[in-house]
Amino acid sequence: MAMQSGTALQEKVSRMLSKNQKKPLLKPNKPLVLKDEVANRKMNKGEATCVTEMSMMMACWKQNNFVDALCSNEMQSFYKCVEKAQIAKKGKSEQHTIGQGGRLAPKQVNTLLKRHPTLQTEI
Amino acid sequence: MAAPITGLLKPWTPRLFLVRWSRYNPYYLEPEPRKELYNMPETELTTEQKEERELKAVRPIKATTNSTTSSVFNDPVLSKFVNMMMRDGEKILARGILTQTLESLKRKQVEKYHKAPQGKKAEIECNPYAIFHQALENCMPVIGLASIQKGGKFYQVPVPLTDNRRRFLAMKWMITECRDNKNRRTLMYEKLSQELLAAYSKEGNVIKRKHELHKMAESNRAYAHYRWW
Fold first, then answer.
1. Number of A–B residue contacts, CB under 8 Å
2. Which residues of chain B does A83 touch, with a Cβ-Cβ cutoff of 8 Å?
3. B70 plus B53 within the same structural domain
4. Which residues form the Small ribosomal subunit protein uS7 domain (chain B) (predicted)?
């Protein structure tokens, strides 16, 4: 099945390259070979954490003219929120490296591809 | 990080010039200079600590730096401050300045103590280490600014800081303030002790700088959503 789909792809590519029938659709300046690595990308763009705590603390500062002693409660809650966010981030990154919802993480794919690179010479 | 190369570990032989490298095989463990952990009896150890001890019997351990001691006077915050003050590797000079600072702090506080009326004597803090730590805590900023690019422009976004970063900023501000903005003829320990006492009572230029950072963060609070972490 893989070989059949491979040859079909090769035929399509050679048709796109050929000058016999129509204008060639591809004019590659480098040989059409895949790289031995995958781009590192993160699908979910994160969002700002602890914004509510920060805004409460800043409101308190505005009221009390930036004296820290009067805003200690808000500051404590902000620190706690920051700690929780850091722990959550660490846990999430750990979970990322373990499993990616059916796919491998880019780092793992790269290690695998490095072990089995595209053959440069004929064996 | 390179994977641990256990097969290539050479047996340790003493060298001619004893040097502690900063790049070790990740197989090496960190040294533990605190005495209390070694005096604990077997029963009080948790499973993790027992595992650590068994590991230490097998694995090699990194050499400590020259400035770590197991004495009661070893303070990591003070060591970090000394390292930040140090120039051209002159640790002796930097440490001497710090001891002179602590001495002058003690002298000033004891003078105040003896001059104070009976009711106020209990409030005056004479321990220079306590004054140092409290002053540094008063100087630590709560929130910092990060330069984030969005739509071609750079915005100063308020961002929470880690504890290490806050401590570093407090120490850096203290040292630069004492180096630049003071009279040229006064010695560094004198300038430091004045600034530390001012920070202890929440006055002075370093506290002002911290408040200015807070004010900037507060004025830019609309951009807080540009953060993605």
1. 47
2. none
3. yes
4. 65-221
pLDDT in tens, B58-75: 988 888 888 888 888 888
Indicate the residue of B218, B225, B228 with minimum beta-carbon distance to A51.
Answer: B225
Tell me the CATH number at B103: 1.10.455.10
Query: Are both B99 and B47 inside the same structural domain?
Result: no
For residue A35, the number of C-alpha atoms closer than 13 Å in the C-beta half-sphere is 6
Contact criterion met (CB < 8 Å) for A58 and B218: yes
Q: Which residues contact B105 (CB under 8 A, 6 or more apart)?
A: B128, B131, B132, B193, B196, B197
- Six-digit token string for A109: 């794919």
B93 and B174 share a domain?
A: yes
Supply the DSSP symbol for B122: G
**B1 band by pLDDT with thresholds 50, 70 and 90:** very low
Report CA torsion sign: B19, B23, B24, B25. negative
ipTM value, please give it.
0.78
- Cβ neighbors of B12 (< 8 A, separation 6 or more) are B60
* Alpha carbon of B156: minimum distance to chain A alpha carbons (Å): 14
B64 and B101 housed in the same domain: no
Same domain, B85 and B70: no
- Burial letters for B146-167: b for 16+ Cβ neighbours within 10 Å, e otherwise? eeeeeeeeeebbbbbbeeeebb
Find the length of chain A: 123
pLDDT (tens digit per residue) in B152-172: 999 999 999 999 999 999 999
> pLDDT tens-digit profile of B11-43?
767 777 666 777 888 888 988 888 888 887 777
Residue A112 tokens read as: 């695998």
* Calpha distance B126→B118 (Å, rounded): 15
- State chain A's maximal CA–CA distance in angstroms: 82
SS3 B16: coil
3-class DSSP assignment, residue A56: helix
Q: What is chain A's Cα-based Rg? A: 27
User: Between chains, do B160 and A57 touch, taking CB under 8 Å as contact?
Assistant: no
